[in-house]
Amino acid sequence: MLHEWTTGRKAFSLSGKSLSGVVDAVCRHGMPAAGTASIELDAIIAKAVRIDPVER
Question: How far apart are CA 23 and CA 6, in angstroms?
């Protein structure tokens, strides 16, 4: 939600993907860079959505 709210677009294109494809996209590859107008906001989003809880 944070990614979509700040960028106006969904983080992943999941339409037509199988459950294993969704899990692979979300859990293995992580979120794409937000690409907002603010470097600081991009860093906050990147940290908040990291897969490993220790890195958050």
Answer: 23
